[in-house]
Amino acid sequence: MKLFSKAKDFISPNEELKETLESSVKELLDGRILADKVIRRNIAFILFLTFLGIFYIANGYSTEKLYKKKVKMEREVRELRFESITTAARLMFISKQSEVKKRVNEAGLNLQESKEPPLKLYKK
């Protein structure tokens, strides 16, 4: 018979968890949890963990900001590279002898093309 009397004292795990959770929330809201010796003894460690958490979050935001800046700069470099290639191609085209001759004639500068090859000067 003693076996059955013990069964009446048994509390299910769900009820026990519910009671513990309710008491924890009550202690937190009442402020009793801050007056506990364990909490007071470890307040430095708790503050250190809080600082680490804040630092971790700030580091994440900073990293995200740097990544966005990097992506923006890479896009700008790519656009400038395309512009550089286009400008170099245009410069090569307008510096051809036939293009120079055509532009001189269009401008009416009255210049003539040299018939003699250029001379090399040597230093002695």
Structure description:
- With 124 residues, the protein is mainly α.
- It has a domain of 86 residues.
- It is built from 6 helices and no strands.
- The termini are far apart.
- 0% of the residues are buried.
- Pfam families: FtsL_2.
The major β-sheet equals:
none
Q: How are helices and strands ordered from N to C?
A: HHHHHH
Shape: rod-shaped
Q: Using DSSP, what is the number of strands?
A: 0
Integer-rounded radius of gyration: 42 Å
Low-confidence stretches: none
Overall pLDDT confidence: 85
Strand content: under 5%
Protein name: Cell division protein FtsL
Transmembrane segments: 43-62
Keywords: Membrane, Transmembrane, Transmembrane helix
Organism: Odoribacter laneus YIT 12061
Compact description:
This protein has 124 residues and is an all-alpha fold. It has helices at residues 2-9, 13-30, 32-35, 37-41, 43-94, 97-107.
